[in-house]
Design brief:
alpha/beta, Rossmann fold, 2 domains, five-stranded mixed sheet, 40% helix
């Protein structure tokens, strides 16, 4: 889902993953105590210089884990929980998604108990999306948060140029039905009700090029009146012709 959203936004990103079970297993094997505090310090690696993080970890006798995190990936096969990383990679491959194993990825919150992930992009140092797996009321779940402000700076969205206004003149249900049909064809569509004069004034102020009129006359003729606001020309066309014209 996240991959599709970022693709639609035009954001090129990479997904880094780890697993809390693996991280805990590494800390246990190294006989590290105060694991929660240590994990919070590890989580600062992308925010603080490594020298400072190492000094903070030294307080807990855990600075040696930084050396382990720099080992090549095959090194981690010795840990039982690394199998979770392998399984995750296999599932992501089915969806055509590439993930990067990052053993130092911690996600500081203590409630994570499984996979954790962060999504980054070259255009920004900060994480743009992040989340992981946790237990809620006895149910294993996964959550994700999006950095909306960060994504808004990175997004390359092409605004659809096809904009139309559907004007209902006492035919609200038909107007709504047609508008929804146009939206399914990815046409940027608005609806207005009431006086044509106000609707046309609004259309001109917003730069909307085409207006579709739906009133008694249109229903009677089984045709739709389409006005080109640039040229002022009007034509009566069928709904099928309209959809074809707008698509």
């Amino acid at each position: 889902m996240t991959s599709k959203i970022l693709k639609e936004l035009g954001v090129k990103a990479e997904t880094n993953v780890n697993n809390r079970e693996l991280l805990n297993e590494i800390l246990d094997k190294e006989q590290v105590k105060n694991k929660e505090q240590v994990i919070r310090e590890i989580d600062k690696l992308d925010k603080l210089p490594e020298k400072q993080v190492r000094a903070n970890l030294r307080k807990y006798g855990a600075e040696k884990v930084l050396t382990i995190f720099k080992k090549p990936e095959f090194y981690f096969k010795r840990y039982r929980a690394y199998s979770k990383i392998i399984a995750l990679k296999e599932y992501c491959k089915l969806y055509g998604i590439k993930i990067n194993f990052q053993p130092s990825l911690a996600r500081g919150l203590s409630y994570y108990n499984g996979s954790v992930f962060e999504i980054k992009t070259k255009g920004m140092k900060e994480t743009i999306c992040g989340g992981g797996s946790f237990l809620v009321s006895g149910i294993q779940a996964t959550g994700i948060s999006f950095g909306v402000e960060r994504l808004s700076k990175l997004a390359k969205i092409k605004v659809k140029e096809k904009r139309v206004l559907v004007l209902s003149i006492g035919q609200d249900k038909e107007a709504v039905r047609l508008a929804e049909k146009l939206r399914k064809e990815e046409v940027n569509c608005e609806i207005m009700y009431g006086k044509p004069s106000k609707a046309l004034e609004y259309t001109n102020s917003k730069g909307i090029e085409k207006v579709i009129f739906i009133g008694k006359e249109e229903i009677k003729k089984c045709k739709i009146k389409l006005r080109n606001m640039k040229t002022g020309s009007e034509s009566f066309i069928s709904e099928r012709e309209l959809i074809k014209k707008m698509s």
